Amino acid sequence: MASLLEWAKSTFRRAPSPHIRFPATGFETINASRILDEERFEDFKKGRYYPVNIGDVFSSKYQVIGKLGFGMTSTVWLARDLAGHQYVTLKVYTRNEASQEEFQVYKYLSQGNPSHPGYPHVRTALDIFTIPRPGGNHHCLVQKPMWESFRDLLYRHPSHRFTENLLRFGLIQVFLALDYLHTECKLVHTDIKADNILQEIEDKSILESFMNSEMENPSPRKFVRGVPVYASRRLELPKTFGRAVLSDFGSAVQGDERRNHDAQPNFFKSPEVMLKADWSYPIDIWNVGLM
After folding, report:
1. CB environment 119-149: b (16+ within 10 A), e (fewer)
2. CB 244 within 8 A of CB 198
3. Which listed residue (37, 81, 191, 248) is catalytic?
4. pLDDT tens for each residue of 145-174
5. Total domains present in the chain
6. How many C-beta atoms surround the C-beta of residue 202 within 10 A?
7. Coil, helix or strand for 103?
8. Is residue 8 one of the residues assigned to a domain?
9. What is its EC number (predicted)?
10. 189-242, pLDDT tens digit by residue?
11. Is residue 111 within 8 Å of residue 149, measured between CB atoms?
12. What CATH number corresponds to the domain at position 46?
């Protein structure tokens, strides 16, 4: 019976989507004197960023559609999972070891109870893989696409303020995420701020619109010593917002170990951290209270 079910699954499984052909012309070439995105960072000058191109396919199934953003240790891209027939984000790390600690945290996140009410409000990993490259490999994190952060929403919303319902339910969901993080994963986030609280995408049409925009108006770009640097493209403002999701676990630590080192954003430091006393899970609650 089991073999029959496996045969049925393999027979009716959808074939992978074909590769998308992106325009090779028609884009703006940015002037060499203009510093663009990650080009401003020292790691770019040292060649530590992976030279991602729109249209690249990684791990035999993730095709890059466009650039969503960048940071000091990574670039972030919208991609299409050709095998899974869904959109994903790829976080491609610079060539260093900093990402190893974050990947370990994602393992802890996946070991918790998925039926916990806070689980859907924590951004977990769908996949982790490595891009080989001479001189050092690059780790890559695959996740569900999210809309922008609470901070971005505040600036992009026409009223420049949160509605009472959005704020109320958003905070409830953040506390559910923290309960999952603290009780199931035994982790302290240590870096809770509006930038790290994302909105789940319910309106999938904004992802289709992103891809259509890339096809019709290819992203501006420049080439630095042959390395492409793309301008980031923003997602449209959705008609409705989904759940609040806690993200960015690069500073997370295990909460059951004794700690008194410096932590938290400067404006949100708890008394324990400022006094260099032992601290643990409660500092995350303090963060939310001051946010």
Report:
1. bbbbbbbeebeebeeeeeebbbbbbbbbbbb
2. yes
3. 191
4. 999 898 888 887 777 777 778 788 999 999
5. 1
6. 13
7. helix
8. no
9. 2.7.11.1
10. 999 999 999 999 999 999 999 999 999 999 999 999 999 999 999 999 888 889
11. no
12. 1.10.510.10
Tell me the whole-structure pTM to 2 decimals: 0.89
Instruction: Write the DSSP string, 103-141.
Output: HHHHHHHHTS-TTSTTGGGB---SEEEEE--TTS-EEEE
Tokens in use for 18? 């074909």
Q: Is residue 53 part of a domain?
A: yes
Is 10 contained in some domain? no
Q: Which residues of the chain have pLDDT under 70?
A: 1-12, 97-99
CA distance to 61, 212, 220, 258, per residue, from 16 (Å): 8, 20, 29, 48
b/e burial code for range 157-169 (CB count within 10 A of at least 16 → b): eeeeeeeeebeee
Q: Are 89 and 78 in contact (CB under 8 A)?
A: yes
User: At 147, which helix (H) or strand (E)?
Assistant: strand 146-149
* Residue with the two structure tokens 């490999």: 137
Judge whether 278 counts as a catalytic residue.
no
DSSP 158: T
Closest by CA to 139, choosing from 105, 99, 81, 107, is 99
